[in-house]
Design a protein that fits this description.
Strand 3, helix 3 and strand 4 form a beta-alpha-beta unit. By secondary structure, this protein is α+β, with helices and mostly antiparallel strands. Helices cover 36% and strands 22% of the residues. It folds into two domains: 287 residues, 3-Layer(aba) Sandwich (Aminopeptidase); 114 residues, Alpha-Beta Plaits (2-Layer Sandwich). The strands form three sheets. Strands 1, 2, 3, 4, 5, 6, 14, 15 and 16 form a nine-stranded mixed β-sheet that branches. Bound molecules: glyoxylic acid and manganese (II) ion (MN) (2 copies). One of its GO terms (molecular function) is hydrolase activity, acting on carbon-nitrogen (but not peptide) bonds, in linear amidines. Keywords: Hydrolase, Metal-binding, Zinc. It comes from Billgrantia gudaonensis. This is N-carbamoyl-L-amino-acid hydrolase.
């Protein structure tokens, strides 16, 4: 084991400086994909990478590749990275840690004058969250061939603005083709976003798998009418249908414990007036499970139950599964590199399955890939209260550095 270690304070300071862009009063961050704030975050990342001697490539999905040359620059790079976009009430660490950990590795190697045999790349993937432009991980998905470029660029927000238009507007519609860029290996460092590591007092999660996800969009249409004169038995209340489906979604999640997750996180009620019976409701469903068969059974239960509820209330229903991301087993050799690095550094660790989606899930289709988790306070994430400890972040970054060095020399 070498004695190269990253600079904990420098990593922390960079996270805090990035967190000021879109920083919220509660100490979180709101930097939605392809907004002016996202542009500012990207500009800062590019500036830091250029100062660290990297060349920058931006592809047509706005993915940014910061490259540190290798002794043999014709070899495929060992790549690391994550995302800089956040949820509307997000934190300073989700995604940002994985990107700035890559930069911190470059800074550390530069300081020591260390060259690697293969080049290294730190990648910032566009719109991982899928909050403004569903689905999640769309740009790493285009990179990995899960979606075509037109699909990626035409994803639209609730105002109808597309990713293509917004990439042009903020100046990050790059010219490089998306994909066809081989990586020797890809590692994503991330906060756990759940409570397991903290509860067990472990510092490093050796991530072996990621669970699958299905995302749905449902529109129920009834009839808006007056809240006073319309008798209860003759109403076609779209929100009542949505409420029953929300309850059913929760029940499907509870029926498939210990591992299922089932969430309705977005709802729009039309016309949203207190004395009008709601005529139309649009909402989303997010199902997750590590086993594809259980996820399929949850899908069947949702479809069957939603039809029944809509019929009972006399509603029309438009039901669409907009995204399926199957469970992902990560590459055994990459997982072993992470485990070996944690052991060599004397860090407490355990194997785990990722509950969240990550760009690594798509990159695993085109390169040997795995992930490194560090604890976050009380397991809270997608929340302005998201916190991580500087020592844990440094530990995760050191594991990343060792795993990268092992791969980049081999
Ligand atoms: C991405 O943050 C997800 O929803 O898993
Ligand atoms: Mn993330
Ligand atoms: Mn996230």
């Amino acid at each position: 084991m070498n004695d190269i270690r990253i600079d904990k304070q420098r990593l922390w300071d960079s996270l805090m400086e990035m967190g000021e862009i879109g920083g919220t009063e509660k100490g979180g961050c709101c930097r939605l994909a392809l907004t002016d704030l996202d542009k500012q975050g990207r500009d800062l990342f590019v500036k830091w990478c250029e100062e660290a001697g990297c060349s920058i490539t931006v592809d047509k999905m706005g993915n940014i590749f910061a490259r540190r040359p290798g002794q043999d620059d014709s070899l495929p790079p060992v790549a690391v990275g994550s995302h800089l976009d956040t949820q509307p009430t997000g934190g300073k660490f989700d995604g940002v840690f994985g990107v700035l950990a890559g930069l911190e590795i470059f800074r550390t190697l530069n300081e020591r004058g260390i060259e690697t045999r293969t080049p290294l790349e730190t990648v910032m993937w566009t719109n991982e969250e899928g909050s403004r432009f569903p689905p999640a991980m769309v740009s790493s998905g285009v990179f990995a061939g899960a979606f075509d470029l037109d699909y990626g660029l035409s994803r639209a927000d609730l105002d109808g603005k597309t990713m293509g238009e917004e990439l042009e507007r903020i100046g990050y519609a790059g010219s490089a083709e998306v994909g066809g860029r081989p990586f020797k290996a890809f590692f994503e460092a991330h906060i756990e976003q759940g409570p397991i590591l903290e509860d067990e007092g472990k510092q490093i999660g050796v991530v072996t798998d990621a669970q699958g996800q299905r995302w749905y969009e449902i529109t129920l249409t009834g009839q808006e009418s007056h809240a006073g004169p319309t008798p209860m038995p003759s109403r076609r209340d779209a929100l009542l249908g949505a409420a029953r489906i929300v309850d059913m979604v929760n029940r499907i999640g509870m029926d498939n414990q210990p591992n299922a997750c089932a969430t309705v996180g977005l709802m729009q009620v039309f016309p949203n007036s207190r004395n009008v019976i709601p005529g139309q409701v649009f909402f989303t469903v997010d199902f997750r499970h590590p086993d594809a068969e259980v996820l399929e059974a949850m899908d069947a239960a949702l479809r069957e139950g939603a039809v029944r509820i809509a019929e009972d209330i006399g509603l029309e229903m438009d039901f669409e599964q907009i995204w399926y991301s199957p469970p992902v087993p990560f590459d055994e050799d990459c997982v072993a590199s992470v485990r070996k690095a944690a052991e060599a550094l004397g860090l407490s660790h355990r194997e785990m399955v990722s509950g969240a989606g990550h760009d690594a899930c798509y990159i695993a289709r085109v390169a040997p890939t795995s992930m490194i988790f560090v604890p976050c306070e009380k397991g809270i994430s997608h929340n302005e209260l998201e916190r991580a400890d500087a020592d844990d972040l440094a530990a995760g970054c050191n594991v990343l550095l060792q795993a990268v060095l092992e791969r980049a020399q081999a």
